[in-house]
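Notes from hallway chat w/ T.B., transcribed later so I don't forget. T.B. wanted the structure written out for a chain they're using in a teaching module, and asked if we could keep both sequence and structure tokens in one place. Agreed to drop them here.
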Amino acid sequence: MHFARFRLLIVLIVLHTMVASAIKTELYYFLIIDPYQHEDYGFSYPVTYQFHLPEANHEVVVFKKYRHHDSWEPLVTHTSDDFFNGVEASRLDGPKKMIYVSAAFGDDSDTLFLKFSDPSGSSIRAIYQGISKYYDNRRAAVTSTADDWAVWFDEKFQRTCRIFRDHKLWVSPAIITNGCDSATWVHIQEQIDSGYVDVVSHSRTHPYIPYADINSEVTGSKWDLIQNLQLPDASRKGSHEYVYVWVAPYGSYDGAIDAYVSWNQYLVTRLYHTGSFQYPEWDPHTKKYHTTGVSREMGPLWAGTTDISDLNAAFDQAYNVGGVYHVMCHPNVIEWDQEYPWLHLDYINEHKDVWYVGMGHLFVYHYLKEFADSFITFYSSEESIQWDLPIKIYPNPFKYETRIRYTLQDNVFVRLGIYDSMGRLIRLMVSEEQHEGPHEVILDADGLIPGLYIYKLEAGNRVKTGRMIRVN
């Protein structure tokens, strides 16, 4: 009897050791993005995260998921001999013991989980080293814009998009939204759906400065694009759609326009001058990038050139310095019956060490890379984490209503109460179990007298309080 109990004890110890060992070998990593930045810019374009592998590994499988309870999904494995752009993938550089993981954040989670395994399923340890300058750690980038899509140039734009797509080159058409009839919107959507097209805003009426109605031209054109089109997946986060670039008509610009561009959360304004090969600097006051030009305009208009030697040399310059080659054109005047546009597109396309990308996605990637230390927190499953409870009240102060946004890192019971300045509960907004991810509650000001109010958000064992002000 005692021997049987002893044998059972040994079995239990062995099982416990096996389970503990299995748990211990389940090693994974996760990145948490600032929920408000995530909401404002989407970050649905795959960003490349660099990891160093301390031990040599000839085969590595990378998995991703967005929540603890999700199943792991393997990423496609590519090599430097493959031609690919803007897709979720992993690429191993064995000699350098580096692996480049390109992945996007999800629509309804601020967390990206990553796991590295060998073909047998055993975990591989990796050391996070930040975000690559360009997608897949490429040497240089190529982007393009095409100005003045409206009904009167519709057919020429469709042809230009098809030609760029046939060369596997992205083009970002600048749309004059009041110049688009229903058929033009359909044709723009067809080109977006066919791939390699990322639209940017180019005003409603293409005016000279000063604009008669700045809000209509800058804000209105952005919302025309969002309301009339279904933008590409990399420009969407759930029901939210994003337009990242404003192209100034005639390249004319002033401080009043710049203020509206900033308010509408465009990341950059493109003007009309050549010779630009690098990203512009960030302006901390307007919270966007300084204006940028293009590298070359292809075609016989204003700043354009049809000199194939000059065009190709401009690409070589960007490639040699590891910069951005931005080729721009006006499809209404580009001469597809001449040799120069075909020869130039053939010259710049399908380099496996060059990143080909729409202009909006170029800048949203760069924005996340430049401010990754502020926007992204990196953890290992081996670390003990004390989760924050991020919350945002907007607007605050408020007059008619305010939105309370918060993000949960797991499924918990949530209680959200609004209290007056004496500490009395006046509104119970939430009292229920909620799933992990972002949530939003709207507080209607009806019945609330002007003054100070306190919110208290309780989620599991975490509590966040703050002040709200209702004004007349």
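Follow-up for T.B.: The chain has three domains: 25-137, 143-352, 386-470. Might be a good example for the class.
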